[in-house]
Amino acid sequence: MNFTRFSDLNYDKFPYISVSAYEKDCWNGWNSVISYLNRYSFALNKKKLVVVAEFYTGVSDVVFDYLKHNFYNDYCFSAADVMKTQEEIDKLIYPDVTDDELFGFMTQLEMNDFFDEKKLLAMKAAIGNIKSGIVLVMGCGASLIADADLLLYFDMPRWEAQLRFRRNEAGNLGADNKEERASLQYKRAYFVDWRVCDRLKKKLMKRWDFVFDTVDNDMPKMVSANLYFAALEKAVHQPFRVVPFFDPGPWGGQWMKEVCDLDKDVDNYAWCFDCVPEENSLLLKVGEVLFETPSVNLVFWAPQALLGKEVFMKFGDEFPIRFDFLDTMQGGNLSLQVHPLKQYIKQKFGMQYTQDESYYILDAGDDACVYLGLKEGVNPEEMIDALKLSQKTACFDAELYVEKWQARRHDHFLIPAGTVHCSGANTMVLEISATPYIFTFKLWDWNRLGLDGRPRPINIDHGKQVIQWDRTTQWTKNNLINQITLVGEGDNWTEEKTGLHELEFIESRRHWFSAKVNHYNNAGVNVLNLVEGSEAIVESPDNMFEPFIVHYAETFIIPATIKKYSIRPHGTSEGKLCATIKTYVRLDT
Fold first, then answer.
1. In what order do the strands lie in the sheet with 564-569?
2. Class of domain 17-234
3. In sequence order, what are the residues at sequence separation of 6 or more whose Cβ sits closer than 8 angstroms to the Cβ of residue 95?
């Protein structure tokens, strides 16, 4: 493929929020961190000082050991010592983890459930009997063991946790399982660990004294709670981006290598998670220091300001919109798949809403296609039998059952849950969807292996329960492909509605513009991507925020606090035609 038309692009892989006014409240590296904490602890001048270091799951043992031996303490206690045995924990979480290779149930467990009550009471009593000195309590759940005079919070972005699973550097909560297959660790973390730690995190946030970034174990960073929450407050009053991450896959392509300037030595890149706040990070720039923190913390800290009152009432402190890239340029087809209906995902997996989605086509080869909907007259029993047989014969004629549509740049394919679909090869997809993102029932994977050399799990038994058999060729054409209507137009701009389907809660609007176009937030958070043009600038008509520059293919978030804003071409795009795709939650669904 010819990538010359992308020569002037400048995709930013490390976007940040600047909080330079707080440089004195940031410490970089172990020497700086420990030196300050030791001085700070003694300056508190307490006869007995209880320092609690609460860990998010995935924080390295290196951190524990360094603190124990270098932060001055008279007594040191580990939360791991009061955990239930691994066998007890495995039994506790089994109903949520299940035997399924991919799916579990969203746990309702709390951190307390992981503790042995007798051991916990004994440790609490031991700490209570200490009359003087510095007491250090560390680990996951440490804050439940002792009341902190000084509360340190060691956080961990989920993407980094996944990388540690792959490198056999981290185990699950309460488990010594670093050598377990990474996919199983991820499933357990998704359904149990992260939910448990998030519940505790939300209770503790307003009590934090210092917050840590330990993505680099050898060069940790610490900021004061004042700095941290000032940064989050700034974020909910300006446009911002989360830090994208990229991952290879068995069907991955070459487009993102060029457009996003990625490592050319990697065979392919399949995914870019460009706006998945549960998994992405935020970067806070303090002077020359970049402090990495989970972006979901912003959702927890100020959900109503970020999402808007009505969206918050509907979804709580969950960010409901997800943007990601699927790159099959010079790659292969995605797996043929279907997503669960709302009732099914709630009953089987404990999720409150489902993985409705759409494919917006950023780029396409001459043979690009999308498989979407079923052929007219498909017999359900025959198709399911053929899919099951394919697990033995490694053969399935997808085009006999599933409709195949040509895909071109700026096409928009809508995919409400229950619709059989996948992107074909040589297609660059901006996937716009609801946030649940692992609930994909693979029906056929084109007889290939995953990157780990294992067959990827197929979920025909789940899939057959949710496939909507009446979504056939004509219905798909009339309801799901390029449902584009003109909404408004003015000097040098037009606004089009492109979806999503009436069954989905996300509204998408495309603006074409060669000069300034005004936007309104529709009473909730907006998520946008610059889908045409090399650069644009987002501005506030009342100077609420500083001008914000975005580049081609970058996803950005407009918090609900920003009621109106404008976007216009900028830099090399001045005077040229640009386009954004904008999404928000429809409040009437």
1. 517-520, 564-569, 535-539, 548-551
2. alpha beta
3. 105
Number of Cβ within a 10 Å radius of residue 446: 17
Q: Where are the domains of the chain?
A: 4-13+241-478, 17-234
- C-beta of residue 166 within 8 angstroms of C-beta of residue 248: no
4-13+241-478 has CATH 3.40.50.300 classification: no
Do domains 4-13+241-478 and 17-234 share one topology? The answer is: no
| pLDDT per position as a tens digit, 549-580 | 999 999 999 999 999 999 999 999 999 999 99
Residue 468 is given by DSSP the state -
* Distance (Å) of CA 374 to CA 222, 379, 478: 54, 10, 13
pTM > 0.90: yes or no: yes
Q: 436-493: per-residue pLDDT in tens?
A: 878 999 999 999 988 888 888 999 999 999 999 999 999 999 999 999 999 999 999 9
Short-list 564, 548, 567, 560, CA closest to 584: 560
500 preceded by a cis bond (ω within 30 of 0) = yes
Residue type, 281: S
Contact 403, 383 (CB under 8 A): no
Distance of alpha carbon 257 from alpha carbon 468, whole angstroms? 36
Q: Are strands 357-364 and 427-434 parallel, antiparallel or unpaired?
A: antiparallel
